[in-house]
Amino acid sequence: MQKNLKNLYKSSLYRNAFFLVINSTIMSGLGFFFWTLATRLFNSYEVGLALTLITSMTLIGSISLFGFDDALIRYLGTSKVKNLKINSIFSICALISFIISVVFVIVAIGFIPQISFISKNLLLALSFIASCVVWTQFILSDSLFVALRDTKYVFIKNSLFSFIKLMLPFLLLSLGFLGIFYSWTAAALVSIMILLLILPKNFNYKPKVDINLNVLKEMFRFSVSNYIMKVFISAPSLILPLIITRMLSPEKTAYFYIAWMIADFIAVVPNSLALSLFAEGSSNQSSKVAIKRTLKISYIILMIVIITIFLLGGFVLSLFGQEYFQNSLNLMLILSLAAIPLTLNTTYITVSRLRKDTRKLIFIGIYHFVFFLSLSLLLIRTFDIFGIGIAWLTTNLLLSIYILLRREKWIY
Q1: H/E/C letters for each residue in 29-78?
Q2: What DSSP line would sit under 182-204, residue for residue?
Q3: pLDDT at res. 5
Q4: Separation CA 335–CA 292 (nearest Å)
Q5: Cβ-based neighbours of 19, under 8 Å, separated by 6 or more
C-alpha cells in the first residue's frame, strides 16, 4: 500500500493533483470558517447582499478570462516566449475585466435594485471595478502555476488569501455587508502582491503590461472554444445568486450559497484530478490507463465524502445557524448526489479539451447553460431554492447518460 502511494506521488500527474486537492481543501475549509464567522457577525440579509456582490465579481472575472486561462495551461509548457505569453494574457484579461465591470456598474441599477447603490456612489463604483480587475488576475494566476507544473504555489497563494480573508471581517465590521466583500478583494490583492515577489525569483519571469496580438492570435481559436464551454457551464451558478436576490430575497441567496459551497467541497478531488490530467496531457499524451485511474480514485474518495455529508451535513449546517439548517439542508443533500454524474462529466470534458474537440465542448457548454438555467427558473417558482438542486442533478445526470451511451473508447 505504502509503495503504491509512493509511486502515485512520483507521477507528476498525481503529485500536482495532490497539491491542487490540498489547495482546494484548505480554501474550502477556511472558506467554511469564513462564512461561519460571517453568518455569526452579520444577519442573513447582509450575507446575501455580500454574496450578490461577490458572485457578480466572480462572474465578471470568469467572463474576462476569455478562455486564456486554459490556453495558458495548454501552450505555455512548450513555448519559447513564456514571458511574452504570460504578460499578454494577464494584460488583455485585466483590460477585458475593466470594460465588463464598468458596463455592469452602469446596468446594475436596472437589473438588481438591491445593489443599485453601486451605480449611485462613485467611490463604491470605482472600488467595485478595481476589485473585479484584481479578482481576474487572482484566479488567472492559478492557471499560471498549473501551466508551470508547480502547483504548490497555487496552494501557497490561496492559503495566504484564505488566512488573510479570515481575519479581515473583524476589522471591517463597521462597513456591514461591504466588510465581507472587501475582505475578499483585499486578501486577493495582498496575495497577488506576494505572487509578484515569487515569480521573478523562482521562474525567471518579469511582469509588465504588454499586449502582443500575434501571441494572442496563436491561442485564440483554442481559448475561444474553451471559453464558450466554461462560461456557459459556470455562468448559471454565478447568475443564480443574482436571480435569487431579485426573485426571492437576499436571505435566500445566503441559504443557497452555503449549500452550494459545501457541494463544491465534495467535488474537490475529482476537479483537481481532472485539472492535473489536463496539464499533464498538454505536455505528454495521457494514456487510457491514466484516465481510468483518475476516475477510479475520484469515485473512491467521492463516495466516502458523500456518505460523510449525509451523516454529518445537518450538524455542519447548524454551525452557520438554525435558519441555515432549516433552509439549506435538502438543497445540500441533492447537490451532493449530483457530484456522482458530475465527476464523469468533468473527466469527459477534460479529455475533450485535450483532443481539442471544440464542437463537443461548445455543445456541452450550451446544453449546461440553457437546460440548467431554464429548469432552475421553472422549478424555483414551485420548489424555492430546492428546485435549483433538482435542476443541477437532472442536468448532470442526463449528460452522463449521454456520455455512457456513446461508449467512446477513452472510458471503455
Answers
A1: HHHHHHHHHHHHHCCHHHHHHHHHHHHHHHHHHHHHCCCHHHHHHHHHHH
A2: HHHHHHHHHHHHHHHHHHHHHH-
A3: 45
A4: 24
A5: 151, 152, 154, 155
Coil, strand or helix at 130: helix
User: Under DSSP, is residue 285 helix (H, G, I), strand (E, B) or coil?
Assistant: coil
Q: How many residues does the chain have?
A: 412
* Integer Rg of the chain from CA: 21
pTM for the full predicted model: 0.76
Half-sphere exposure of 143 (CA within 13 A, CB side): 25
* 141 within 8 A of 195, measured Cβ to Cβ: yes
The phi-psi region of residue 122 (left if phi > 0; otherwise alpha if psi is between -120 and 50; otherwise beta) is alpha
pLDDT digits over 218-244, tens only? Answer: 777 666 766 777 788 888 888 899 889
Residue in 47, 48, 67, 58 with CA at minimum distance from that of residue 101: 58
What type of residue sits at position 319? L
Please tell me the distance from the alpha carbon of residue 109 to that of residue 179, in angstroms, as a whole number: 21
CA dist 11 and 280 (Å) reads: 10
State how far the Cα of 313 lies from the Cα of 307, in Å rounded to an integer: 9
